[in-house]
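Re: that chain you flagged

S.,

Sorry for the slow reply, it's been a week of failed gels. I finally had a moment to sit down with the sequence you sent. For the record, here it is as I used it:
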Amino acid sequence: MIAEIVADRLRRAPIDRAMAWIADLCRHDRYQASLGINRAAEFVADTARSVGVENVTIQRFAADGRRAWWSFDAPRSWTPVEARLEVKGKGRDAFTVDHAATPFTIATYSAATPPGGVTLPLVVLTETAKADPDRGGIAVVDRETYAAPDLIARVTASGCRGFVTDGPAKPADRRDSPGRVELPPGCPLFAFSITSDQFRRVRTAALSAGAATARIQIDRTAPMPVVIGTLPGDLPGEIWLTGHLCHPRPGANDNASGVAGTLAVAALEASFPRAKRKTLRFVWGPEFLGAAALLHSLSARGIRPEAVINLDMIGEDQALCGCPFVLERSSGHMPDPLSPLAELIVAEVFAQTNDAPGRWIATPFQGFSDHAIFVSAAEGCPAVQFCHAPDPFNHSAADRPDKVSPLEMRRSIAAASALATMIASSEDVAANRPTADLRTIPGDARPIRRDRGPVNIRAIVAALSPGSRERLLALFREDRMNHAVLMSLALRVDGVRGPRQIVEESYAALERPVEEKIGMQMLDALIEAGWAE
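Prediction finished late last night. Pasting the structure tokens below so you have them in one place:
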């Protein structure tokens, strides 16, 4: 049965349309609450209707930075209308960067300048560097300084009003493309991201008493949009397919590919009979915050998914990007019929396309995308993700449509459609779930969660005392996967498992050796932050 469904989906997948949708989406700067993402949302809504999705609406949420959905704060509205930096060096050292021409040049959440711009001296940032106390300056920040956790504090202490850096650029793979710089919402500084060659020139200009003019205009009127639509079925319950819409342009693989992929799945599924099938709901919105806002809104009306399929970075050309197709399983903290079925389907997709290059792997749940919202809510559900990682062009201006493979899009669309069809045809998903092993260890206390919403790592970090916060952030800097460890721990705080069992199961789920000291430290952080007691 799986082989027949997969063969049919591989044959029918609308790849030409999907690739065209990716190109259209790449034209928009899709910051989480911006004019660009609202234009992209209109495009997605119109496209969804054209392929047969019903009940398509755009829900628009206020983007005022206030607490809105469980522990999640709404984003702040931010659209760069103008963002230019003119470096006034000597000869070749003079140049201009313009976000309108080169994506990623302006740092997300940069502050605006006065309407006419500001001309300021360039200051190479060192421990003792200080800007003109009356005028301020623009700090020139090298990669090592950019990576320091106290960067914003150091730039502020120097008296500079902004900075320029090539910090996120990697010479080996994006030497001609700026990488992403993101400032905290409400930050009073501005920042520009440039290439390594441009950085050498701006540093030379700074050492010869050069200056630069920054012109930044910001629009703050746009709301946060979330597009939803359904293919109604006649069985009770819903299966959700998600693809986050946000990202600075071009964002071809991250995540125009996922948005186009879900639209293609919708087009496929709209052509099949609706009898004996659950409703399919499609969701396109800003990553994490859009999913949290929608889940908060619909769960208040008793509408929740029984399972979720998340498509994020599904189109990477493996030959160019060097990363395999990744099936990220659900968390394992609850019974899960979705992950094993997804593995069978993806294996079949690659078996039927083995005449072309490429490989796939299955990994434990890590939770770096929207599927974490649904898995980690108090009334959570199984959720899997299709993606490609690690992509060296991710979060840079080099993430263009030329990095997207039609073959990988076909594989991803076919796998997602087959999985949606099969899981939606199961009359009772819960009845097919294996029984969880919820043993207890005698003598253990049993922490219980206090927060009913999805796990919000950022809110947990913010709620800690300064010392505890820095210790936790140091663990994150030491190993990015410690984010996943903290998520895994939080999911297992259920009033049944004791601390040792929580730590042991969390590391086992991640297929990592148990680090009891770190695990207990993070569990203590969950309690201090008020997530658990």
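What I noticed first: Residues 430-441 have pLDDT under 50 and may be disordered.

Talk soon,
D.
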